[in-house]
Amino acid sequence: MLDREPETVTDRPGLLVISDKGFASKEFEADLALRGAELLRPSFKREKKRKGESLLKSVRQLIESVNDTLKGQLDLERHGGRTFEGVAVRVAQRILAMAAAIWHNHKTGQPITRSLIAYDH
After folding, report:
1. What's the pLDDT at 107?
2. To the nearest 5 percent, what fractions of the chain are helix, strand and coil?
3. How far is CA 104 from CA 65, 100, 112, in A?
4. Looking at 80-84, 85-89, 96-100, which range is the least confident one?
5. Which one of 21, 109, 111, 121 is most buried, by most CB atoms within 10 A?
6. CB–CB of 68/77 below 8 Å?
């Protein structure tokens, strides 16, 4: 990916790449370091704790929460689009509708801002 779009790293000095244990190799980390990026991944049992590893649990929970919202509440796996453009439009309209609902819940002082139950008709 970084070979295909090198500006991903060059346009973002100090880029932090987050991965799982499957991307553990000295060669990969050396390549990232040469590009000016750093790898954040969980350590193996035989390794000492890696810098920033304590952040991974909260980041993973955030990612899982977003995935659950997109798949569950917005039903993005059953979008009904037949072309790339059709899928993109349906996904965008659902995310925009959810953002509007969250904004409305926030502005009206609702106790749970991410709840879409009031709009589920």
Report:
1. 92
2. 55, 5, 40
3. 20, 6, 11
4. 80-84
5. 21
6. no
DSSP 9-67: HHTSTT-EEE--GGG--HHHHHHHHHHT-EEE-PPPTTSPPPTTGGGHHHHHHHHHHHH
Residue whose entry in the numeric block shows the structure tokens 């002082």:
109
Which tokens sit at 83?
Answer: 């072309």
pLDDT digits (tens, 9 = 90+) for 1-27: 888 988 888 888 889 888 888 888 889
β-pair type (38-40, 16-18): parallel
Contact call for residues 9 and 2 (beta carbons, < 8 A): yes
pLDDT of 46:
87
